[in-house]
Amino acid sequence: MHGEPGIGKSALLEYLVNHAGGCRIVRAIGVQSEMELAFAGLHQVCAPLLSGIERLPAPQREALSTALGLAIGVPPDRFLVALAALGLLSDAAPAEPLICVVDDAHWLDRTSLQVLAFVARRLAAESVAIAFAIRDPDEVPELAGLRDLPVHGLGEEDARALLDIAQRGPVDSRVVDQILAEARGNPLALLEFPKGFSRTQIVGGFGPPGVSGLPTLIEAGYQRQLAELPADTRELLLVAAAEPTGDPVLMWRAAERLGVNLTAAASAEAAGLVEFGARVRFRHPLFRSAVYRAATVEQLGRTHAALAEATDPAVDPDRRAWHRAQAAPGPDEAVAAELERSSARAAARGGQAAAAAFLARAVQLTAEAPRRAERALAAAEVQHEAGAADAALRLLCVAEATGLTDLGRAQADLLRAQIAFTTSRGSDAPALLLKAARQLERFDVRLCRDTYLDALLASMFAGALAAAGGNVREVAEAARSAPPAVERSQPADLLLDGLAVRFTDGYAAAVPVLRGALAAFRDIDLTPDLLRWFWLAHIMAGHLWDEQTLDNGRHLQVARDVGALATLPLALSVRIGAHVLAGELGAAHNLMSELETVEDATGIPSAPYGALLLAAWRGREADALTLIEKASSEALRRGEGFGLTTTGIATALLYNSLGSYEDAADAATKASEYPPAMGVESWGVLVELVEAAVGCGRRASAADAFARIIETTQATRTAWALGIEARCRALLDDAASAEIAYREAIEQLSATRIRGELARAHLLFGEWLRRQKRPGDARQQLSIAHEMFTTMGMEAFSERSAAELRATGATVRRSGPATASRLTAQEAQVARLAAGGLSNAEIASRLFISPRTVEWHLSRVFTKLQITSRRQLRQ
pTM, whole model, 2 decimals? Predict the structure, then answer.
């Protein structure tokens, strides 16, 4: 529900609670002063349900326990915490339906809001409902897309009726008209605004002066009521307003330090403004706000100081630190240091937004310039980790303006470059990263070398669109002069050395070093830190025609096992590419569905290149061209030259499968002119160019492309490389030697799992045999190709081979249209994973849903398919 303050959202939530018979209720209320406390809102929701935490899967249980401060562990991934929260709510619902009511959600700490929004989007089969109340939807993007209820003001007739009830006596018509005009149908304004005026003012027409805007209008009424209360009552209310937990013991301890007597509560309770019970509850959040805003700076400082003294530093050190910070009249190193410790605790619990807020306040309280710059830089780094790029850049400006050391300037340049690469992967990032790497050389060898590797990666992404000073050759030359690694056998160091050689001395010179790097990645125990580079190792495997590393699914498995959701999209993308090359389009499609689920859950977009290659190999022209056009536009917008090369490969592959050789040659020629960057494109585009150019009579262009291919295939001499080389040679050979080359291609590729390219070898050999007037031999090769393409779902290549078969006089049975699936997309995902042997809990973790939702989907799957067991499902 959303609407302006006082419009009735809280009243509607109370109505929901009061009419939810037979339901369990959990509540959370956002409080503005708690927005910087990590997972404070989530703790409100989960605290009553923690008896079920032991039933969560271990990674989720550990993540949630750490986030809520129940245990000490590694900083948890926010998405793993969200999955745990979903499981906890789902687990609590079977006994009785569960309703979670979240009022003033716009004032929840950001991490809690993200987690609860994640949960809300994944409630399907659970007997769980979540109702949020917020002010402005534009200020809470986390809730975008949820079903919403705008709450509007009353019509004039109802507004007059409500005002009559509130006044209970004659009112001057001019005052009524003024109140109605200014309240604009807002119920709280109609009820509260007149209460601060005497009967003489109301009846005689000497009404209040105009106050523009809500909630100012409502707060003005509250503040007039507040002014009529005794001074000690006002002071007690200020203590209650400044302490958001509503803990009466803490409030009275602080009030006692201020000399406030227990009798001060009576006047406020008598006026119905506040309730002092098991919790301190204000009649409305706007009254709390009015009390707080009416206080002077000196009063606020004194109140927060009393609350800090009353807060147990052993039980709640972070809240105490925050009160001390609010009480500080100016720079205070002791308080700033305490905030710094609170930031570290928040980061350890996975609350990066809270950690950044603590540090940002510490910066304001730091007088010494070098220390202030150091803290501002640290705060900027945490803001970047929290995904707040704009806030990080603002803090970077503070750090740079305050005066950084040489090391600090290098770290600031690195952070600025990382922000640029994270937000756009575009043309500016390589030069920025290179500058940072050079500055770090004399301070931190490990960080320096990692930054050079980042710079190389960024320059490969930018490709031909890299800004001045950041092309891949320049970055590689600089990387070769980097300080040597302390342990040269480390995979990342070998990868850096190999890539530096690749783009300076050439492909052949780099092969031994890069092979050593890939072997190190295959042999080492993967850690979350290494996952950062492992996907690049996979891409380099394609670059080296290294099927062994490319086909290694360990990267994806480890990312899933440790809950590394930030790197999971990359791991899925790499695995999709491996499946496509192996001709396993069904498996690639399944992972595409999972990738979309991960992107939706995490908000982390991935590069669309796996989807592009999948669409091109499928051969559905309209679908593929739509994806290609979109990816090309995005690559140009970001300055990502690698994207242009990849879309060129996909376009050429698609047109080759359709037999449109002129279009394929044009696309491949354009893409081949870009500098080599990463992955298979250094030879992949050339392979497409050879076939397309031969097909449309551009033999000189085909011969030139083939000469460039041989540079890579002879340097690596894998079965994959030699098979592709032989197939390309066959296209260019004369009749005497072409057959030998085709048979060599088939023999070599048959020893690999690169099934799509093997099927193409059979197709091209069959087409050549038909042109040689050998229809019987041609039918044999074309039949193999047709069966392979059809089985793999490569529709355009399948139709091309079918057409060639018909030209030999063979009868080709047309495949009937696929039977429309009776399963929804998510039911099909669940069914495939269940058929693969995964448990409900494992499927739930994979698809970011609860085990109960998995059970619900499976019951629907069994009903639709008229089966009763998982064994039947596998069949």
Answer: 0.70
